[in-house]
Amino acid sequence: MTDKNDNNTNRQWLLKQRPVGMVTQDCFELAESDIPTPAEGEVLAKMTYLSFAPAMRGWITDMPSYMPPIEIGSPVTAPGLAEVIESNDPNISPGDFVSGLMSWSEYVAGAGWQVVDKNISPEMQLGPLSETGMTAYAGLIRIGELKEGDTVLVSGAAGATGSVAAQIARLKGHKTVGIAGGQEKCDWLLNEAKLDAAIDYKNDDISKALREHFPNGVDVYFENVGGDTLQTVINHLADGARVALCGMISGYNDETPRPGPNNLMLMIVKRITMRGFLVFDHFDLFAEARENIANWVKSGEIAFRNDVQEGFLNIPKTFFRLFEGENKGKQLLKL
Ligand code: NAP
Fold first, then answer.
1. Which CATH architecture has domain 131-281?
2. pTM of the predicted protein model
3. pLDDT at residue 6 above 90?
4. Coil, strand, or helix at residue 51?
5. Could you tell me the distance, in angstroms and rounded to a whole number, from the CA of residue 182 to the centre of ligand 1?
């Protein structure tokens, strides 16, 4: 099959089987069907961009979660941006662009999507102004309870969410250090995101680096990866530190749960708070977060980068990039 569809049909990637361990290509299968017909109140839209999130690894399993698992044989649910080509909704016109939860399809029919401002680039809409940016903002400010003088550490710091969180902390005047995998990402954190320091967890001694950069401990830790990194960071938290548990990507492909950190006793003696959160519980912050982040990007105070892959056939491979650390910034795919 080529990457061009001349058949006037709708190609989709369906979930064929649930992953065991690392998610692989054979979890998905290609299917071709008729272009859907929008029902009353719905629109028909042609997908233009797909956005990829590590959380989607959870959506294709049947573990308890905040949303029902994607059924075997169904198209894979994914956030995206699409151009409306037919509308049965009086508030939406053909030519409008809508965004929201869609699927790995060429065409989608549905309702409840947001009409987006065509003057804002897809990279910005699906990057810092998407739930990614909202997660960074809510996690750092509300869950991390960031206050004057705090020192801040962010893991997954060169990624879509981590890079925004780290830069918000830096531009608010906090000493901010990021942890990321590899020299290229650490160079980006220093030269573009302008953090105070970057730690390469693949090559550096994290403990030694944390002792050097945080002699009095880390006050706010924005956690994106979990696993060994979390265990190490707990040893370097300050009295009264707050840990915003945003994600734990290092374990998303584990077949069996790993043993937890063995140093949680430190949370008692140091009065540490560790709190998990989901961005969907913080809608009340979105307008403020969007306005601030848009202004910071416009004024050059926040740098962001997108990793835009192309082609319908490359969709599963693009998803895997997140777990191999290949994505440089927000992972998108253009259709
Ligand atoms: P991202 O950071 O742009 O991409 C994922 C990154 O994770 C990779 O580039 C890689 O960076 C790192 N990674 C992959 N495997 C790893 C491993 N085994 N150990 C350490 N790092 C690893 O993705 P994102 O969309 O911004 O998501 C980041 C985190 O936020 C995820 O944990 C996600 O689940 C979470 N999240 C949570 C919410 C919420 O509401 N709580 C919302 C959005 C996202 P390196 O090259 O640096 O290893």
1. 3-Layer(aba) Sandwich (3.40)
2. 0.96
3. no
4. strand
5. 14
Helix extents (H) in the chain: 56-59, 122-125, 131-137, 160-171, 183-191, 206-213, 227-234, 265-269, 286-298, 315-324
Choosing from 161, 221, 277 the residue with most ligand 1 atoms within 8 A of its CB, the one to mutate for a pocket test is: 161
Q: Report how far residue 327's alpha carbon sits from residue 161's, in angstroms, rounded to the nearest whole number.
A: 12
Concatenate the DSSP letters of all residues of 280-311 into one string: GGGGGGHHHHHHHHHHHHHTTSS---EEEEE-
pLDDT of residue 63: 85
Give the CA angle between residues 199, 153, 224 to the nearest 5°.
85
pLDDT tens, 210-263? 999 999 999 999 999 999 999 999 999 999 999 999 999 999 999 998 888 999
Alpha helix positions (H), 214-285? 227-234, 265-269
3-state SS class at 250: helix
Q: Does any ligand 1 atom lie closer than 6 A to the CB of residue 246?
A: yes
CATH for the 10-127+304-334 domain, from 3.30.1360.120, 3.90.180.10, 3.20.20.70, 3.30.300.20: 3.90.180.10
Reported confidence tier of residue 109, pLDDT bands at 50, 70, 90: very high
Predicted confidence band at 177 (pLDDT cuts at 50, 70, 90)?
Answer: very high
Of all protein residues, the one whose alpha carbon is nearest to atom 13 of ligand 1 is 325
| Ligand 1 atom showing the smallest separation from residue 179 Cα | 47
Q: Pick the closest to residue 293 from 158, 162, 167 (CA basis).
A: 167
* Nearest protein Cα to ligand 1, atom 22: 250
Find out whether 45 and 82 touch, Cβ atoms under 8 Å. yes
For the chain, how big is the Rg over CA atoms in Å?
A: 21
Domain ranges of the chain: 10-127+304-334, 131-281
